[in-house]
Amino acid sequence: xxxxxxxxxxxxxxxxxxxxxxxxxxxxxxxxxxxxxxxxxxxxxxxxxxxxxxxxxxxxxxxxxxxxxxxxxxxxxxxxxxxxxxxxxxxxxxxxxxxxxxxxxxxxxxxxxxxxxxxxxxxxxxxxxxxxxxxxxxxxxxxxxxxxxxxxxxxxxxxxxxxxxxxxxxxxxxxxxxxxxxxxxxxxxxxxxxxxxxxxxxxxxxxxxxxxxxxxxxxxxxxxxxxxxxxxxxxxxxxxxxxxxxxxxxxxxxxxxxxxxxxxxxxxxxxxxxxxxxxxxxxxxxxxxxxxxxxxxxxxxxxxxxxxxxxxxxxxxxxxxxxxxxxxxxxxxxxxxxxxxxxxxxxxxxxxxxxxxxxxxxxxxxxxxxxxxxxxxxxxxxxxxxxxxxxxxxxxxxxxxxxxxxxxxxxxxxxxxxxxxxxxxxxxxxxxxxxxxxxxxxxxxxxxxxxxxxxxxxxxxxxxxxxxxxxxxxxxxxxxxxxxxxxxxxxxxx
Length: 494
Ligand SMILES: CC(=O)N[C@H]1[C@@H](OP(=O)(O)OP(=O)(O)OC[C@H]2O[C@@H](n3ccc(=O)[nH]c3=O)[C@H](O)[C@@H]2O)O[C@H](CO)[C@@H](O)[C@@H]1O[C@H](C)C(=O)N[C@@H](C)C(=O)N[C@H](CCC(=O)O)C(=O)O
Ligand SMILES: Nc1ncnc2c1ncn2[C@@H]1O[C@H](COP(=O)(O)OP(=O)(O)OP(=O)(O)O)[C@@H](O)[C@H]1O
What we know:
494 residues, UDP-N-acetylmuramoyl-L-alanine:D-glutamate ligase, six-stranded mixed beta sheet, 16 helices, 34% helix, binds adenosine-5'-triphosphate
């Protein structure tokens, strides 16, 4: 990819180019990723001034910088492109620079508080069963067919996003399935992407540290439905909406393309009946309009996963996948890492590791565990640091109400004092815990060993919050930590 800096400047009314034209071969916001010919975009973080990395960027081969700052000192030979609004400039120049890669493939965007990852994995499985080459962008990882790449965000920033899409185009992906977070929609990370199918899973409390109110949070999510409604270069746009979630009304109000609705309680285009849950799977019958109902046995469990299956089926129907491929792929699906994942190490009780880290996610998982457990439920959980504090007491209350034994512990405390986070969670626990056994153990390993040590035949230990993550983010840095690995070790020591 090569473009002239002047060509990019010409796209931006009011931009000033200082220091002359240059040939640009990539756009980067991180000086550590820069190679010869890059345009270094100075986006500062909460604690870091990105302009301080200009010398590093220059040494690594940058030819120019893009900044909002009026005056910037740069080493000789580096051009400066000055703009009034950095985000608005990136929205325009980044997709242009990478030649709008999203126009070369079908794009399925999935938004909602919970269920994005699970739904995206289900959609990927169906499309691949139907012979499509599929890319995936989401919380756990990025995939291009079977090849896996790491990621820092659920939805990467606009620069990494366009680079990934360009790579997917180079590898001839037919479709990309993408989790679209509310942060991404608010920050323009999906600028220049033409969505073909947009899916809404649900809206419950999360991320209020960022959005402040549920109305703002819903509005951010609704942006995806503005985007899928825009006329573009491809035909056949569809919104897939959860009819049982009240916030779908907001999504629908932003939708100006055909809708496929799904639900269990409300009247919808796509529904499920005869649902039977077991610990390691479920049976259900999919009903889609006049079509013959299809009975399925799937390796996922929980009513919340019935919704994810319906959402994924809706997306597959929107993408015109054959019914036979949808059914076969769902039946062959074995689950998503860290989502209601059973840890089996020969023990006579169950251990479930689950990524639930919102009040709603936690309630769903604990209720599902209860429905498939003969004995007691032992819940191990905490809440993340530097993120939405208002959910802490709520999650504490849910844990204390729905489990028989509660073990509070750390979950990525980040820069906060882990014990202080647990104290906030505890304000929700104490009013409802009654005589149930309850512990506060800051060290997550100790907490998991304690919970597993208390389990008897028929009980279920539910370890919540981290799912697939194999790290713990502490004030002093990030350490290796994997709930599944630790649980196995604890079971081995019994
Ligand atoms: C709080 C936050 O949003 N942080 C995001 C931000 O990092 P940052 O601003 O802290 O970066 P920084 O380390 O301060 O650096 C500032 C700038 O200097 C640059 N830099 C830094 C170091 C260096 O040596 N050279 C250099 O150029 C960085 O590239 C950056 O532009 O920019 C990074 C690059 O885009 C993001 O990966 C990072 O997301 C972090 C991981 C994060 O946790 N974000 C959350 C809030 C988020 O976005 N979550 C949503 C939703 C998830 C969900 O649904 O649950 C998501 O989509 O992930
Ligand atoms: N449809 C759903 N409704 C409510 N809770 C759900 C649903 N699907 C999954 N969950 C719960 O939320 C957790 C996270 O699921 P998943 O990773 O699919 O969601 P997500 O939207 O990708 O989350 P995140 O963006 O935070 O990564 C699961 O482990 C499960 O506990």
